[in-house]
């Protein structure tokens, strides 16, 4: 009876840890993707003004409206800007349809993150009821196990990104999209000129670094909690 209860408590603790880490990942991705300062820094680094033929002001306005569209705060991508000295529609139909896919993906991930917070709250309540005074030690043990699982996975992802980012990035797109609209022409399509492969490489590295650091810090906190409450 006790062994079954102990196993159930361990399961609750590990799953709550996994959910928390997944929520952290989605939150870090959101913060990085919608950071205008990061876009500005990358644009300067990659000389995006020259590549796109857009003045910096128009480039940043376009970026702001693009991100607003992805977040569902803008109804369409009817954006006009000066490109190579002429005012025109920024994105063509292929780019617009692809960004509609990106918007659906983001909104779905936001729903998953929010649902994950609710489920996490419920799991933590069950863990507290089931463990009593041993709650903190149980949570800490479960989180440490979850952290090891996630850090191993993201270590492998980090190696894949570093060894051949193009293969990793193409595989990622084949996995999450059901069409090939993400295959854009850097000679003609403004979207890929704004955010080329190097941009996404820097973005993924930033996400991995911030996420890995956050998990590591929380794992150290959990290890400290486990040490303090080991006799409880």
How is this structure best described in words?
Helix content is 78%, strand content 3%. The chain is built from nine helices and two strands; from the N terminus they run H-H-H-H-E-E-H-H-H-H-H. Strands 1-2 form a two-stranded antiparallel sheet. Helix 5 runs antiparallel to helix 6 (135-163). It is elongated, with a radius of gyration of 22 Å. It starts with a helix and ends with a helix. The model has no long low-confidence stretch (mean pLDDT 91).
What is this structure's SSE topology?
Layout (H helix, E strand, L loop, with lengths): L1 H32 L2 H11 L1 H5 L3 H15 L9 E4 L2 E4 L3 H39 L3 H29 L1 H12 L13 H5 L2 H32 L4
Antiparallel strand pairs: 1-2
Helix pairs in contact: 1-5, 1-6, 1-9, 5-6, 6-7, 6-9
By secondary-structure content and strand pairing, the structural class works out as mainly alpha
Q: How far is the N terminus from the C terminus?
A: 21 Å
Secondary-structure element series: HHHHEEHHHHH
What fraction of residues sit in β-strands?
under 5%
Would you identify the regions where 5 or more consecutive residues have pLDDT less than 50?
none
Q: What is shown here, in short?
A:
By secondary structure, the protein is mainly α. It contains nine helices and two strands, in the order H-H-H-H-E-E-H-H-H-H-H. A two-stranded antiparallel ribbon has the order 1-2.
List keywords for this structure.
232 residues; mainly alpha; two-stranded antiparallel ribbon; 9 helices; 2 strands; elongated
């Amino acid at each position: 009876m006790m062994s079954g209860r102990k196993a159930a408590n361990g399961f609750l603790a590990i799953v709550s840890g996994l959910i928390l880490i997944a929520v952290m990942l989605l939150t870090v991705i959101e913060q990085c993707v919608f950071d205008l300062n990061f876009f500005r820094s990358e644009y300067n680094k990659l000389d995006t003004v020259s590549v796109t033929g857009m003045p910096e002001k128009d480039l940043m306005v376009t970026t702001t409206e693009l991100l607003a569209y992805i977040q569902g705060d803008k109804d369409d991508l009817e954006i006009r800007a000066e490109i190579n000295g002429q005012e025109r529609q920024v994105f063509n139909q292929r780019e617009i349809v692809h960004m509609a896919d990106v918007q659906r993906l983001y909104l779905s991930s936001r729903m998953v993150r929010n649902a994950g917070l609710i489920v996490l709250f419920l799991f933590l309540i069950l863990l507290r009821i089931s463990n009593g005074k041993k709650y903190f030690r149980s949570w800490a043990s479960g989180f440490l196990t979850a952290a090891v699982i996630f850090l191993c996975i993201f270590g492998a992802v980090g190696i894949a990104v570093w060894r051949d980012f193009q293969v990793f990035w193409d595989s990622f797109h084949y996995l999450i999209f059901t069409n090939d609209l993400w295959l854009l022409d850097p000679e003609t399509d403004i979207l890929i000129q704004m955010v080329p492969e190097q941009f996404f490489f820097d973005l993924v590295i930033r996400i991995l670094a911030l996420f890995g650091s956050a998990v590591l810090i929380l794992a150290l906190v959990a290890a400290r909690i486990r040490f303090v409450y080991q006799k409880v």
